[in-house]
Specification:
By secondary structure, the protein is an alpha+beta fold. The protein has helices at 7-34, 40-55, 57-61, 68-86, 94-104, 109-129, 133-218, 225-249, 252-257, 259-271, 290-311, 340-349, 356-366, and strands spanning 277-281, 315-322, 326-333, 370-375, 381-388. Among the domains are: 7-131, no CATH class; 257-393, Heat Shock Protein 90 (2-Layer Sandwich). It is built from 13 helices and 5 strands.
């Protein structure tokens, strides 16, 4: 069994069962010695065989043969039946047998075996010492207590299994979120480098190329024209290489499919679950610069990470609209909501390590856009980002 918070409980119950079984068997041996009868030797030998059979249960538990446990339980039962026929004190061994029946036999077979063993114990006590109220009520009370404890044990085992499964799912989700955040950070840095290269090196090479081209037109036959032409061609070649680097740094999903398809793929593979439906309302025909698409994708990833991790929402919607010079990204959910002011204060004071909204706001500020949050506890949240579109340089 995998170690859980309830493992000590299960270990304690099983240890107690072993102690009770051995103690009652020893009691039967002592009774056979103290009050000898013609069958005392058979009782002692049978008790030793019973203990040896019980000890084999550890090997049976690790056996690859599925029916080994049933055969082991059948052997114990037959040995006990013979023993209880020889000496009345063996009837007390029915109590630990109850728990074995309830633990090993599936469904209703466990309680039925308990009732059958109870009936045998009552009959054995009646035949050995006469029919008494104690000889009847005792086994019945023991059977009732055993069934109640067995049901409680099954409930605990089922709860432990469900809790372990939940922990495995939470750990898997945490690992997936960590991987997603790492990937998001890597891709964000790649996108930042692409923007920086585009805005500095690529623009500079483009300007150098145009200046050299102008100088070549001004003096087509002047001194050094060949060097000017070579410099212009070198700048053109380096500019082509630089643009290729920019394309390679840009997420391939955006280049190949566009931001709508990229968001839908993320919604289907990472964000949606049995408890959360994510709707993406983005036209595949929307035309946006690749750096803007990259920025919107990263902002959406950060916002959706918050929704998945904190919002406890049933539905979320991602929408992108644009007009002539503005693009608008809206992410809404019907989750538990939050107080933006309180989050900002907690973030500033270090009481919270959440950085999703802060990172999104910094990215939006770098692009000269605006980010607004409409949220309050119990009413969900709407995050809106607006970016101005400029002509490609």
């Amino acid at each position: 069994m995998t170690h859980t918070a309830l493992t000590p409980v299960f270990v304690g119950l099983r240890t107690g069962l072993h102690v009770v079984f051995v103690a009652l068997t020893v009691l039967v041996i002592v009774r056979a010695i103290v009050a000898p009868t013609p069958s005392s030797l058979a009782v002692i030998v049978l008790c030793l065989i019973l203990l040896a059979t019980y000890a084999l249960g550890g090997l049976v538990a690790h056996s690859a043969f599925r029916g080994a446990g049933y055969l082991w339980l059948l052997a114990l039962s037959l040995e006990w039946i013979v023993l209880v026929w020889l000496i009345p004190e063996a009837a007390y061994l029915v109590f630990p047998l109850f728990f074995l029946y309830l633990h090993l036999l599936p469904g209703w077979w466990g309680p039925l075996a308990v009732l059958a063993a109870t009936a045998l114990a009552i009959v054995a006590l009646g035949l050995h010492g006469g029919w008494t109220v104690g000889g009847i009520v005792g086994p019945l009370v023991g059977a009732g207590v055993a069934i109640l404890i067995g049901l409680g044990y099954r409930s605990l085992a089922r709860e432990s299994q469900e809790r372990e499964q939940l922990m495995d799912e939470l750990i898997a989700t945490r690992d997936q979120l960590a991987e997603t955040e790492h990937e998001s950070g890597v891709l964000a840095e790649r996108a930042r480098l692409a923007r920086e290269i585009h805005d500095t090196v690529a623009q500079g090479l483009s300007s150098i190329q145009m200046l050299l081209h102008a100088a070549e037109r001004e003096a087509p036959d002047g001194a050094g024209t060949e060097y000017i032409r070579l410099a212009r061609e070198t700048a053109a070649s380096n500019l082509a290489d630089t643009r290729r680097f920019i394309r390679e740094l840009t997420p391939s999903a955006l280049v190949d499919q566009g931001i709508g398809a990229a968001l839908r793929r993320l919604a289907e593979t990472q964000w949606s679950s049995d408890s959360l439906q994510v709707h993406v309302r983005v036209s595949d025909a929307i035309d946006l610069p690749i750096d803007v698409q990259t920025a919107l994708l990263r902002i959406a990833q950060g916002a959706m990470a918050n929704v998945v991790q904190h919002a406890d929402a049933r539905s979320a919607t991602i929408t992108i609209d644009r007009d002539a010079d503005t693009v608008r990204l809206t992410i809404s959910d019907d989750g538990r909501g939050f107080d933006p002011a309180a989050v900002a204060i907690a973030r500033a004071s270090g009481a919270s390590d959440s950085f999703g909204l802060t990172a999104a706001r910094e990215r939006v500020d770098q692009l000269g856009g605006t980010l607004t949050i409409d949220a309050e506890p119990g009413r969900g949240a709407i995050v809106t980002v607006e970016l101005k579109l400029e002509a490609d340089g």
